[in-house]
Amino acid sequence: MNTDCDLLVIGGGITGAGIALEAARRGLSVTLVEARDFAWGTSSRSSKLVHGGLRYLREGKPGLTRESVHERAALMRDAAGLVEPQGFLMAHYRGRSPGRWLLGAGLAIYDAFAGVRSRRYHAADRAAWLAPHLGRAGLQGASTYLDAKTDDARLVLRVLQEARVHGARLMNYTRVESLLRDATGVCGARLQPEAGAAYVLRARCVVNATGVWADGLRATLGAAPKLRPLRGSHLLFPLWRLPLAQAVAFMHPRDGRPVFAYPWEGIALVGTTDEDHAADLALEPGITRGEADYLFEALAWQFPSLALCDADVLSAYAGVRPVVASGRADPSKETRDHIVLDEAGLLTVTGGKLTTFRAIAVDALARLAPRLPAAGRSATGSIFAPVAKSAALAALPPALCERLIGRHGVATEALVACAAPGELARICGTPTLWAELRYAAQAEQVQHLDDLLLRRTRLGLLLRHGAAEILPRVEQIARPLLGWDATRWRAEVARYLDIVQRCHALPREATPGLEHA
Known about the structure:
Blueprint: E1 5-10, H1 14-25, E2 30-33, E3 49-50, H2 54-58, H3 62-78, E4 83-93, H4 100-114, E5 120-123, H5 124-130, E6 139-150, H6 152-165, E7 169-171, E8 174-182, E9 185-193, E10 199-208, H7 214-219, E11 227-238, E12 247-251, E13 258-264, E14 267-271, E15 275-276, H8 289-302, E16 315-324, E17 338-343, E18 346-351, H9 357-368, H10 391-394, H11 398-408, H12 412-418, H13 434-443, H14 449-456, H15 459-462, H16 471-482, H17 486-503
Parallel strand pairs: 1-2, 1-10, 2-7, 4-12, 10-18
Antiparallel strand pairs: 3-6, 4-6, 5-6, 8-9, 9-10, 11-14, 11-15, 11-16, 12-13, 13-14, 17-18
Helix pairs in contact: 1-6, 1-9, 12-13, 13-16
């Protein structure tokens, strides 16, 4: 068979990136294409937690919890500086769930799977010291335990970087126009880059890893829908308005859904909602007024003394989860398991969670082994290759060095080397270096301004108004490297600020048809 590669992966989120990496590690020739930017969809709009999944214990799925805990440990080990430990606190109130003993039993299993004890119980006075702004009425105490957090978009980019090191070819802004089929089934795709002519790419196997958009590609083969798109929305606050030394998890007073608030990238992140998403999936999602009010209601109950309001919000974002539909009325009751479907030679991999992306990839490749024997090989060792510290890296403060290596891997030395004078300083109000902007524009396939400010860095979320105040300096750094003239820059700024206003600002009015149930 005349083919251009062994495996074509369609979709540049964490699932597609994980599959591309695991396939490339096994010696397969891999091409990955993404219709928009890498991590453009759910994989840059998650809750940014790498967690074991306590909810799976409640649902009677200890095996899934064990797998998640093991993957969490591997990521904290192999991606230190990118996947970081995060302490959690859950307060116990008189007459409210979960109680101390029930949660304690779940945490004991959690710790047993992890092989380390992180859980502790604290009396009410100690709980109030650990989280001073907790509501005090009926407070009996609190349980603490350990999970982890990450920058989800940078995790995708780090996985893709590792895949490229193993020989994978990666293309963003390259849309699948149609699937190719022969007597054996799907055998490639006709691709349309954003800039350039369409062309045909043939592959021995094709994987549909397009997340919430997977049913659209399956529909071209006549397959029935499998997914229930669910929207999860989040609010971001300055830490001085929502002071947190650790994550606080609690149940919403209205419906008992889990809500959390935790420190992330120098700000406080609050989420999440769980709503059926009926809007066109081609449109970038944003938080609705009803969802914002729902989260404010939760914050007013858990942190009553803070009196948080719209004016305190730095930014907001919403992601649409690819959840497998089971017909349950309550979206929160739907399973978060992943599925692997082989239909007419197209292998669809969707669902699942950020934490278990590697286990999902291994499962997918096992299904491809009959057609690609190399896919069945075991690939041992770390998720990411270790990065040797040069003299330039060793001269950096240790915490900064670990952070940069976690986010940029083998490219860290090049990033430091390309920094202009003063660019190894942090951008005010964020942990991001000016040099990270320069390196991303120079070497990370940036095609639009939102790629740079919402995914390569998270400045558009961390600073008010999408970081509009620093755009003049961003222009000085990035425009020459991207080859944009003044007209293109103005067009990119207008495009970017429109995205910020539509998708990352609080809506003042209700959004018809998209309100909280």
